[in-house]
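During the no-cost extension, the postdoctoral fellow (Dr. R.K.) reprocessed legacy sequence entries with the updated structure-token encoder. One reprocessed record is reproduced below for audit purposes.
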Amino acid sequence: MMTGFQNNITEFTIQGFLNVQHLHYPLFILFLFIYLITLLGNLTVFTVISLNSHLHTPMYIFLMNLSFIDISFTSTILPNFLHVLFTQQKNISFVGCIAQMYVFASLVVCEYILLTAMAYDRYIAICHPLHYVVRMDEKHCACLVAAAWSVGFLDPIGHVVLISKLSFCASHVIDHIFCDVTPLLKLSCSDTFNIEIMNYIEGFLLTFNSFLLISVSYVCIVFTILNIQSSEGRSKAFSTCTSHLTCVVIIYGTIICMYLRPTSILSPERDKFFSLLYIVLIPLLNPFIYTLRNIEFQTALRNQR
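Re-encoded structure tokens follow.
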């Protein structure tokens, strides 16, 4: 065994933001406020859709699941990050680290599949409206949601098992804000080439295929909208897609910058920024992106009061 390897590791240290230690308490207040607003916004969306039978359509069922994913994202990462900022106690157990990485990776996959299902739903609604009731009935909607959650939590298992068996150097400091795949691979003293290749291939296939399906759906949607005679009809049809399209652009742009590159060009500070963008900003904005101009949801919200 090489010197410096430690197979019986019990905990890691989350380094966080070393260059802003004097701002830890202001950052704690800021992220605590964002976390509470994120929970409030997404819980509101989830609750209103759950309690209002008029919103039990595929588009809102997908949105309800997306809100639950956003709640899970922030709750998986931010409470521990807030604890680090407030107490400066940066240790996390090995099991806790692996579990955090697994849940995060699972939710990413769930979100990809769910966003693809939402694009398909808009495609059927706009391009084949007469077939919508048949092709997006309750059974099909339930199958798409079940597929998103099942594939999401099954897909990362192999990666997590392989990473959990790696040997790590004497330094167990993770230069990140949470236990993510790339910082752990960078920290390992084992040969991680096969794991990296598997991550890139599967990540590329997942990202490319879901993005391709979404892109094809929107190409068909745009052509259909352009053939609508009235400007009011075109505006109404396009308005049903803008929220989802905005969310897709932000999420895919962030994920590509975070993961689709080799660990040899790892930039910890940039990764921390993009991670915060994904974990904090996107869940915060999603409820507003999807509901600010949604008259149907706003009516249902007022009726709940």
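The mean pLDDT is 85. The chain has one domain: 11-304. The remaining legacy entries will be reprocessed before the final report is submitted.
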